[in-house]
Structures are given as C-alpha cells and as structure tokens.
Amino acid sequence: MKIAVPANGNKVEQHFGKCDNYAIVEITDNSKIESIVDYNASGLCGCKSNIAEIFVKMGVETMLAGNMGQGAVDSVSKQGIKVVRGCKGEINDVVKGYLNDLIVDSGESCFSFDLHHAEGSEHQCGH
Question: How many helices (H) and strands (E) does the chain have?
C-alpha cells in the first residue's frame, strides 16, 4: 500500500493547494513504513491539477492531508483514493497514527477558494 502526504519538509502541509512536494509512503504487508520518497509536484497541487491521476498510476490508495477544499477532496476521491483530512505534525508520526487507527478524517473542508486565491487575500478555512 502507498500513502500520499502533502509535505512541507518533514511535516504535513496544512493546505493541499499550497504544497510543492508529497511524501509517498510505502507500507509493508504488516503495516510498517517501508520507505518514504519525496515527490516534487511543483504546479501539480490543487483540485484543477492531474495529481490524483498521477497518484493512481503510482499505486497510492490513501491521502493523509491537513486541509483541503471540497473540490480537491472530490477530485482525489473520484480517482478512488481515500482522503483523510485534519492531519497535523511530522509525516512519520501521522502515518504511524493512521496505521494504528488513531487518525480519522475530520470531515471538514476549506471554503472560500476564490478569496484564498485572490491577490492579497487571506486564506479562510471552515474549522
């Protein structure tokens, strides 16, 4: 199994649409982290990109994310990738927490996409 995590260094990026890198985490059959590979996705984040299709080709089954707009959630989910929102912290810890059933989807999506992407506007999330 492979898990994609929008990354900011070794931490979960708190907004899917802002990340330039993903950690692609390969999990062994006994639910242990086998490897973490950095995938540079500059320009491929957000609901209007084809990043979900790329992940499917890579064998990604789950995305552990901080915050995502509903369009991004729908785009990724439509490709058959399970989305878990509300993740925060170091990628290693978040993945281990998910594998141990300690992390579940928050069910919350960001809103105000147009405000977020308008010049000089502050990002607003519905949390």
Answer: 4, 6
